[in-house]
Amino acid sequence: MPDATQPAPRIAPLQPPYSPDVEESLRRWMPPGSGADPLLLFRTLNVHGELASRMRPLGAGILGHGTLAPRERELMILRTCARAGAEYEWGVHAVAFGAAVGLSEEQIRATVSGSSADAVFGEGDRPLIALADELHDGAGVSDALWAVLAQRFSPEQLVELLVTAGWYRLISYVINGARVQLEPWAARFPAR
Q1: Which among 94, 143, 103 is positioned nearest to 121, based on CA atoms?
Q2: Is residue 178 within 8 Å of residue 9, measured between CB atoms?
Q3: What is the pTM of this model?
């Protein structure tokens, strides 16, 4: 049911009952055995089923088959979504992954309103926050930041960080452009 406090979605998400093809696609987008209703984002993407089927492997690969530590991945995702104003995806990841990967509530909140210099972020976190910021602000990475990242991450992981940021920027475009409604159980951006 749409939330009256949010703007109406520009693209209505698919509603049950689903055709067998859509049902199968939505099942594949959801975590195995979750038993949860398909996310509004997935139901919106499946308006274009062929495109959604081509997108799913990359999204699943980032979340389930990466070389980054889950905490590093989630910092990158949270900051990228926060900077892009994608409260929907930020809130889903804050609830579904934040605590599970070892992020404190204060660190999760700081991905929205903090900076890479904030004390809440450790030395290992700061370059990831800075990377998300530089990519958001200029679609590139400074030589100084790259040198710091290259001391810690392998070339494979550096590519994964860039692709993760790009994927979640793409997802942010879909969410913001289509006005995907917030999931009722997901976190909201903290008040500034």
Answers
A1: 103
A2: yes
A3: 0.95
